[in-house]
Amino acid sequence: MPKPAVVIIGADKGGVGKTTVARTLLDYLVRHQIRTRAFDTEIPKGTLKRFHPDITDIVDISQVADQMRIFDTVNSTDAAVSLIDVRAGLLSPTLSALRKIGFIEAAKKGEITLVVFHILGPSIASLEEIAQTANSLRDAKYFMVKNFINDSHYFGWDDATYASYFKRVPDAVTIEIPKLVEMAAEQVEVASVPFASFIANKKQSGGVASYSLVLRGYVRHWLDNVWAQYDRTGLLKILGTTQAPSALAAPNTLPASGAPADKPRPILQVAAENA
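Now predict its structure.
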C-alpha cells in the first residue's frame, strides 16, 4: 500500500494566491484519478471549500484538536493525498508544530510523504521567509512558487539575491504560475466551480452551464500551462501516485454545450499573449 502524502500550501504573507494554487492542484489530482481530501484553514467560511465543497473541510490549523483531525488520520483515510491550504501567516507556525509533534521526523523516516508549496510574494521580504521555512523542511519536498496570476512582477529578485536565498534549500524546485486573463479569472470566481468544471462548462451541481467559450478557452490554456509545471517536477512520482490521467477531466478539450462529456470537440485557439 502506498504511503500517505500530505501537501501543504502556504505563505507567511497574504494576497499571494495560495488558494488559487491549491485549486489547480486539486484539479490536477482529480484529473489523474488520485483520491484526495482537502482542508481549508480560512475560518469560519473558507475559500477553498467554496470551489471544492465535496472534498474540503474547514479547520483551525492553530488548534490542537484540528491538528489531530488532520494528521492523526493520514494513515486511516482512504485518500491518498491530504491537501492543506494554510491561512496567511500560519505557514511557519504550522511547520514548527509539525516538527514538534514528530510529523516531519516521520517524513524523514519514509513513513509519510510531505510536500510544501511555499507561495512567494514579489518582495525581498517574501524571500526572507525562505530562511525561516527552510529550517523546518530538510526532510520534505519543497516547492517555491512564483504566482503571476495577481500580476506580480518580482521586482527585487536580481540573480544574485535570488540565488542567495534559494540555495538555502538545495533540493527546492521553482514553479511559476502564469497570469490568467482577468476577465476569465473573475468569471471562474463568480461561477464558484473548479477550473476544470468551468472549462467543461459545468455548474457545481454537474449540470450544463453557459460560460463563455472564449473565457473557457483562456482558462483551459492557462491550466494546461500550470499542469505542465507539475508534470515537469514529477509531482505524481513524488506523491507516490502514478495513475493515468482521466480523459473526462482533461483540460485540453471543451465539450459542446449540452453534449456528453466523453465526446469533446476542439476549442478555439486562444491568443498568443496568454502563452
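The two ends are 40 Å apart (CA to CA).
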